[in-house]
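Hey,

Quick one before I head out. I ran the complex with glycine overnight. Inputs first:
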Amino acid sequence: MSATITVALGDRSYPILIEAGLLARAADHLAPLARGRTMAIVTDRNVLPHCQALRAALGVAGIRTEAIVLEPGEKTKSWDQLAALCDRLLDLGVERGDHVIALGGGVIGDLVGFACAILKRGCRFVQIPTTLLAQVDSSVGGKTAINTRAGKNLIGAFHQPAMVLIDPSVLDTLPVREVRAGYAEVVKYGLIDDPAFFAWCETHGTDLIAGNPAARDHAIAHAVAAKARIVAADEHETNGTRALLNLGHTFGHALEAVAGFSQALIHGEGVAAGCALAFAFSAAQGICPRADSERVAAHWRDVGLPDGLAAAGIAATGATLVEHMRHDKKMAAGTLPFLLAHGIGKTYLDKTVDLDVVEAFLDAQPR
Ligand code: GLY
């Protein structure tokens, strides 16, 4: 299966190509961007085999490359690493018209994207995401950032890539826990506004996580098309459309924070538990049928994702979790907008949620 999806942003529009085996054929798409110049590929140690495969494929096509290999993990999204990366790219003589390749998961994509946003006041970059989470979410839409002492993703820029190349077959070697976590972001698109896709996930989710190529490719193309539509409608998250992508993230972020943003609860797992809590909270407020909230939780249990605080291993009190929410970057004039749901596929932004009510709801959840 192969698909090309366009993120329609006027003169900053770009294609997302999805095709198994695309890494080996990347030169077909990258040669016009290389224009005879050396391409910098930024990656991390875990992705080295894919980096070698990409360099070999580009080499055969006569494209010279330089690899910059960083440490895997969230700590790489730091001021220090950003400075070091910018210096390396400057040393390599990267010019504004050059395209830097970000080959990796969300950490590499976010860091490289931000470096390219500020290098010489902006150079181009190509995303080649190698995790399911990056393929269906972070590589598309131009959000770039690093973390600081004060929190995750607080320093960054919107900077759209010139192209996204998605090769689903690179997921064959991704640890299944990572695939499962990325799957939470796939299901999110069904929960937001596409109940038929949620039903598809209920039928095919287990197969997808087990690596069934047909299920995987279908889900990636569907999710990317949804993300492209949302980004085109609200590039800078100003009219409420793109904010829908934060479903499960306010609850999930608080859970990740109390887990210390560690391997105890990785991002997609936090999103899964967060979506379950957003639906359970909506049901508790009487705005969502309880059957829909239970259906969400049941699907997470079916595929081995956490369906709430207990399954996520979170014992913190409601007060502790809400305290983390108060530091959320979406907090505005003392109010935290929440993504709630009238039902599956009926997510909406609610700016009237009382954090005391959230705290009481969280305290009532089984630990
Ligand atoms: N990951 C959320 C967004 O791209 O807006």
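The radius of gyration is 20 Å.

Talk tomorrow,
K.
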